[in-house]
Amino acid sequence: MAGLAWEVATVAALRDETPHVKTLSLDVAGWSGHRPGQHVDIRLTAEDGYQAQRSYSIASAPSVESRIELTIERVAGGEVSPFLHDEVAVGDRFEVRGPIGGYFVWDGGSTDPLLLVAGGSGVVPLMAIVRHRAAVGSSAPCTLLFSSRTPADIIYGAELETLAARNDGLRVVHTLTREQPEGWTGYSRRIDAQMLQDVLGTASGSANVFVCGPTPLVEVAATSLVSLGLPSSRVRTERFGPSGG
User: Fold this and answer.
1) SS (H, E, C) the chain
2) pTM score over 0.90
């Protein structure tokens, strides 16, 4: 990408989020800061010169420090994510380029309600928004509607519970599509128009919406939200589909 140079990133810490999702904390030389919702490119170079490159959303809130967090799902048969999960250790280095993107971002200046809709690892850029909202003390009411397959697949589950317990206007609504714990009273289906209407409530005309996840989820959510009366200009989407991982 023109105008962005590759920088050296050093792995500072590793953290398991779920059995298939890991967070990498990176110290990036020359990092200029980022906005919530942006992403970076990662480039790995083998000893024989072969290179592989992938894009990953930034999970951490903006900071004056040169450290960022990337939360990465392991893609079976992938080329990059299995290496980042299985081979990378603290102290290792590789290249990153960014931050990238200026459309799917929320800087915290608006007090309009926020609706964040996530499917699986699509929660990563939305988590940057949630963390930034907490860090700056935003008064914008925020609902995160988060679709996961099973309880074990809920990324950032404990942190989201802690943030919601602050009672500062953040509400986290889960739907578990494949397996629910005993006594579960929440949603147990894929996100649909009725679910979106439930969580939107009376904020449908003024909410700023960010949707991220697999393409089918994003399409259903975006179409449903517009049909519920939300201006399309207020619905921002980011999607992912099958890739080399």
Assistant:
1) CCCCCCEEEEEEEEEEEECCEEEEEEEECCCCCCCCCCEEEEEEECCCCCEEEEEEEECCCCCCCCEEEEEEECCCCCCCHHHHHHCCCCCCEEEEEEEECCCCCCCCCCCCCEEEEEEHHHHHHHHHHHHHHHHHCCCCCEEEEEEECCHHHCCCHHHHHHHHCCCCCEEEEEEECCCCCCCCCCECCCCCHHHHHHHHHHHCCCCEEEEEEEHHHHHHHHHHHHHCCCCHHHEEEEEECCCCC
2) yes
